[in-house]
Design goal:
The complex is a heterotrimer.
Chain A: E1 4-5, H1 7-20, H2 41-44, E2 47-48, H3 51-61, H4 63-72, E3 76-81, H5 87-92, E4 97-100, H6 108-111, H7 117-124, H8 136-143, E5 152-158, H9 162-173, E6 179-183, E7 195-197, E8 203-205, H10 206-227, H11 233-259, H12 267-279, H13 284-304, E9 314-319, H14 326-333, E10 336-342, H15 358-367, H16 375-389, E11 393-398, H17 405-420, E12 424-428, H18 437-456
Parallel strand pairs in A: 3-4, 3-5, 5-6, 9-10, 9-11, 11-12
Antiparallel strand pairs in A: 1-2, 7-8
Helix pairs in contact in A: 3-12, 3-13, 7-8, 10-15, 11-12, 11-13, 16-17
Chain B: E1 3-6, H1 13-18, E2 22-25, H2 45-56, E3 63-69, H3 73-85, E4 90-93, H4 102-121, H5 129-148, H6 155-168, E5 187-193, H7 202-209, E6 212-219, H8 232-237, H9 239-250, H10 260-272, E7 277-283, H11 287-299, E8 304-309, H12 313-331
Parallel strand pairs in B: 1-2, 1-3, 3-4, 5-6, 5-7, 7-8
Helix pairs in contact in B: 2-3, 4-9, 5-6
Chain C: E1 2-8, E2 12-19, E3 25-32, H1 37-51, E4 59-65, E5 77-78, H2 81-92, E6 98-102, E7 107-112, E8 118-124, H3 132-142, H4 149-155, H5 174-179, E9 192-195, H6 204-212, E10 216-218, H7 225-236
Parallel strand pairs in C: 1-4, 4-5, 6-9, 9-10
Antiparallel strand pairs in C: 1-2, 2-3, 6-7, 7-8
Helix pairs in contact in C: 2-7
Chain lengths: 457, 332, 241
């Protein structure tokens, strides 16, 4: 039966799986081995008890080893910062490049040592808690103790968030060369402009798509120089096709999980799975296998009519990723389940058009970034997805220090309430929510109670 | 004459004026925590005050539009609030953060053209090159006068002159200004940071009263936010391109990526003015400038005083004067 | 002739009288702050003079510091608490290089050069996070006396991780201030001297030591260093050596 288990229970479960199960990938193993030196964060989480979930977690937690192995094998490493999903597709179209997401280092304090050195290093650089948790990246670069220092750093700026941009600039100021590229603020076309319908439902004027194309050409040239090979249309098309395999799997997974009568997969594992879309955890092929595994598990559970939560839990749509993964468990403790998400990277989940020239397709995809446009547009997409997944309430999670969160939540919340008349709550979720747990719990429980009362009416 | 309000230095006032409209750079009176837009955790007090002033009715009675830019992400988000809750037509100008590529330069020019279309929709006249060129020369002359006036005006009056120039245009620059520079020069200081509000001009007085003198106003509201002199030959050839070039390439800022030009500019100015200390003025929740504080401290040997404004009166009445006083005690 | 230093802080008023020539401390006292702080300071000042057998005519110069310094009408001069604490601590700990002052409602970090002059400083003066006020609230919630917080902390086996930043004002408590800019080895100059009212609370120095990972010396008479510094600076205005 599906249920959530602790890290300690996983060690026992792992032994059962190992004896009974099929061949395991080399990165698999007891989850407990990732806990080092009194790391407490992993110990505080609850995990899905399936073999597929174990594989997912091991895949996530061994990314650094894979990156080091890639370096040792002679691959070039590209750090793609801020851009969530476009440049990695280009990078992975070259067979001797591995791309990863250095700002994903903000997860490191979340899953590892809570008194992490990384945040202290960021503090020493003047990038304190008033900045987004991505600041952990600075420590990761300076210590070199996590991911290998990439051969090329690419960072998008412009219609992005200021605190990330400031953190990246701080890194640049410390001597790390960055190839900056501009993502314009996506806007609706004016009457005399040619409209382009972007994947995901947004629109942009042709001139903006052309601009992004020109930026991607610059990046392409840099990648080619690094790889020592041409990144032609054939390779790019193949890369897009591969990326779409991941996206298609994820789309199916999301649809099944969010619409199933009984919740077949916890919110935490869904969050991790979605994150794979951004950078493939440094192994695109393995990402596909991991997602296929998860999909099989979910399908089996749905077919068997089993889930790990009761059928009457409140169906919650969640906006923005959380800095403290415990909150995903907390949602379920409070009687809710995830039925829809918008973690700031829908453009990494939507299928990249394959009937367009590849650079055009990628430019459209990059412009479809929900953060690149207005919060009003973002709210529109959220409303569409809420209807699709049948969510009954909305949680907007604020990332402390993130410049876009201060006002965006207000706009999104208002629009969703106006259009859909569902309850909305905003939560501030810092990297360590231990002391705030009662506050968060109260808000989530109140939301769930509101949903239940509305059902009765 | 209809007025267009704005606050960002990358909005060229000359372009607005060339359309027969009056450009008025809005400097909020003070950081206030009240208004139609509630103070929210994480919201920059300057953005909050600016939006509230626009929404409660800008100072100019004949205001017909407001221009904000993407230089600041919080202002970019605030635009969504403006268009939802304010009847005043609003325009969001996309100012590129990158600046070294031809594409970024072209984007800025295209945005000026788009701004021009917006101004025409509000009743402005399509601009003629000759008109734009003439306006640019007027503004250039006014800027030059203001900068030259630094030799006989107090630091506060210089700052007020720049603010008045932004608000009223070149016509009334330096009217009735007499020699107000203190006879005894205080410790020369620079003030560095983003935009100021009117109430912040008290900083200049507090510095003087404490034994200092601001000789370099490197805030966005000060001389750093003024575009450099135009190339007159290029004005004749294509005034719009020259306007774009001067504004886009000539105003260094922390938001640029990379923002090395800001430090190059600061280096020249700090040496040229023999500055002995830096007052770093930022807003709580302004990440762009906050991130530069420790970089600045690492970069310069000069002492740096951090003044973070949170929109509370306690800051203005006590904290800021106390810190400035301590700083000058340290320097003297 | 004597000089006086008055530290009108947020919670208490402290006064120190010193001999102008020798800088020797003659007497000192403290009283709680109140609404009429000028009157409170004046009364305390008069009491001190009387108990020392001195009169107003014996006072050469009075310097006031602290949050309420401008309200002390009978002061001849006002000096900020940064400068005064630096001077006061250096007087008591001659080789002090870093001063951490945690008072009733604010905290300061002061770095000194070899000559004892202020080289740099940082202040948390908007939010009471990590100050005496904060500890008072915590003590009350725990139902203990503030003086026993240190003992309680010493018994803790696993401190809970909490944010060190106030989300309203984005103020970081003093450890954060000290951490900022400490990328280079030599930033945290030793010895670190801990002063202010909170330094008198048992166990706080241990907590600070543990957080900083460095030796911390509690200043002698930590509550009076500001007033002492003010008095010395007042005396220097008469006899500059």
């Amino acid at each position: 039966m599906p249920r959530q288990i602790t890290l300690q229970e996983w060690d026992q479960r792992y032994e059962q799986l190992r004896k009974a199960g099929p061949h395991q990938p080399d990165y698999n193993g007891p989850l407990g081995r990732h806990v080092e030196d009194g790391d407490t964060r992993l110990l505080k989480l609850r995990y899905d008890n399936s073999a597929a979930a174990l594989r997912l977690w091991n895949f996530l937690l061994t990314e650094e080893e894979r990156l080091h192995r890639s370096r040792a094998e002679g691959k070039k490493l590209v750090g793609t910062m801020k851009d969530l999903g476009t440049v990695p597709v280009m990078a992975y179209s070259l067979d001797n490049i591995a791309a990863f997401y250095p700002d994903g280092a903000w997860w490191i304090p979340c899953v590892m040592e809570s008194n992490t050195v990384l945040l202290r290093i960021a503090d020493r650089l003047g990038i304190d808690e008033s900045f987004c948790p991505v600041r952990a990246m600075l420590g990761a670069f300076l210590t070199g103790g996590h991911f290998p220092i990439p051969d090329l750093l690419i960072c998008s700026v412009g219609a992005t968030c200021d605190d990330f941009s400031a953190i990246a600039q701080r890194l640049n100021g410390l001597g790390y060369a960055i190839l900056w590229w501009e993502i314009p603020h996506r806007r609706r076309p004016e009457p005399d402009e040619v409209e382009v319908k972007l994947p995901g439902g947004f629109q942009a004027p042709r001139c903006q798509v052309e601009f992004v194309k020109s930026e991607l050409q610059r990046l392409k040239t840099a990648l080619e120089e690094l790889a020592g090979q041409r990144l032609d249309e054939k390779k790019l098309s193949a890369g897009i096709k591969k990326a779409n395999m991941v996206r298609t799997l994820l789309a199916e997974l999301r649809k099944l999980v969010f619409t199933a009568k009984l919740s077949p997969l916890p919110a935490l594992e869904m969050l991790i799975a979605e994150m794979l879309a951004i950078h493939f955890c440094s192994d695109q092929n393995e990402t596909i296998i991991v997602l296929k595994d998860l999909l099989e598990e979910v399908k089996a559970r749905i077919k068997a009519g089993i889930g790990f939560l009761s059928p009457d839990v409140a169906r919650i749509f969640w906006v923005n990723p959380v800095a403290d993964l415990q909150v995903m468990n907390l949602l379920e403790d409070c009687g809710g389940r995830i039925c829809g998400t918008e973690y700031l990277f829908t453009h990494a989940l939507d299928t990249i058009p394959q009937d367009l020239p590849p650079t055009e397709a990628l430019a459209q995809m990059a412009l479809a970034d929900p953060m690149a446009g207005s919060s009003i547009d973002r709210a529109g997409r959220i409303c569409t997805d809420i209807r699709t997944f049948g969510a009954e309430a909305l949680v907007i999670s604020r990332i402390p220090g993130a410049s876009h969160c201060a006002l965006e939540g207000q706009v999104i919340g208002e629009i969703v309430q106006d259009k859909l008349d569902i309850p909305v709550v905003e939560l501030e979720v810092p990297p360590f929510t231990d002391s705030m747990r009662p506050t968060l719990r109260t808000r989530l429980e109140a939301l769930v109670e509101t949903v239940r009362v509305r059902r009765e009416k | 004459m209809k007025t267009i309000i704005y606050t960002c230095p990358y909005v060229p006032a000359e372009l607005i004026a060339a359309h027969g409209l009056h450009p008025s750079r809005l400097m909020p009176a003070a950081l206030r925590s009240t208004g139609p837009l509630a103070q929210i955790e994480g919201l920059c007090p300057f953005v909050h005050s600016f939006i509230n002033e626009v929404m409660t009715g800008p100072p100019q009675a004949d205001t017909c539009g407001v221009v904000v830019t993407t230089v600041c992400d919080q202002m970019r988000r605030a635009f969504d609030i403006l268009i939802r809750r304010c009847d005043l037509p609003a325009f969001l100008m996309n100012v590129p953060h990158t600046w070294q590529s031809v594409a970024a330069q072209k984007m800025y020019v295209d945005e000026l053209k788009r701004l021009s279309r917006f101004l025409i929709q509000l009743g402005g006249e399509p601009f003629l090159n000759d008109t734009l060129a003439r306006v640019m020369l007027d503004y250039d002359a006014a800027r030059a006068s203001i900068l030259a006036a630094g030799s006989y005006l107090s630091a506060r009056q210089c700052a007020e002159s720049i603010a008045a120039f932004g608000r009223d245009g070149p016509g009334k620059v330096l009217r009735n200004q007499t020699n107000t520079k203190p006879l005894i020069a205080g410790v020369p200081l620079a003030i560095v940071g983003g935009p100021l509000v009117k109430q912040d001009l008290d900083i200049f007085d507090i510095v003087e009263q404490s034994g200092g003198q601001i000789t370099l106003d490197a805030t966005e509201s000060g001389e750093r936010g003024l575009c450099p002199p135009f190339d007159r030959r290029r004005i004749r050839d294509d005034p719009l391109i020259e306007l774009a070039s001067a504004y886009f390439n000539g105003i260094p800022d922390a938001s640029r990526r990379p923002n090395s030009e800001l430090y190059n500019w600061l280096k020249r100015q700090l040496i040229g003015r023999a500055v002995r200390g830096i007052i770093f003025r930022r807003y709580v929740w302004c990440d762009t400038w906050h991130a530069e504080l420790w970089r600045l401290k690492e970069w310069t040997d000069l002492p740096v005083l951090d003044i973070d404004a949170g929109g509370d009166s306690e800051t203005h009445q006590h904290r800021m004067p106390n810190r400035i006083r301590s700083f000058l005690e340290m320097l003297s | 002739m004597i000089c006086a230093g008055i530290d009108a802080g947020s919670r208490t008023i402290k006064i120190v009288l010193i001999e102008t020539d020798t800088r020797r401390v003659i007497t000192k006292a403290v009283t709680d702050q109140g609404v009429e702080q000028d009157k409170l300071a004046s009364q305390l000042f008069q009491r001190l003079l009387k108990s020392s057998g001195l009169g107003r005519q014996d006072v050469g110069r009075i310097a006031a510091t602290g949050y309420g310094r401008n309200a002390i009408s009978f002061a001849d001069t006002t000096i900020t608490e940064i400068t005064c604490h630096a001077v006061g601590v250096r007087r008591l700990v001659p080789n002090a290089m870093t001063v951490i002052d945690i008072g009733g409602e604010d905290s300061k970090l002061i770095r000194l050069d070899k000559a004892g002059r202020v080289r740099d400083f940082a202040m948390n003066d908007r939010c009471a996070a990590g100050t005496g006020r904060f500890f008072e609230v915590i003590a009350r919630r725990l139902g203990v006396n503030i003086s026993s917080l240190g003992q309680l902390a010493a018994k803790s086996r696993r401190p809970a991780p909490i944010s060190s930043m106030c989300v309203v004002f984005a103020e970081t408590e003093i450890i954060g201030l000290l951490a900022c800019g400490a990328a280079r080895e030599d930033i945290i100059d030793l010895p670190i001297v801990f002063t202010g009212g909170v330094a008198m609370v048992s166990g706080m120095d241990t907590a600070l030591r543990s957080a900083l990972g460095q030796a911390v010396t509690v200043s002698p008479d930590p509550q009076m260093t500001g007033a002492l510094g003010a008095a010395i600076l007042a005396a220097k205005q008469i006899t500059p050596y």
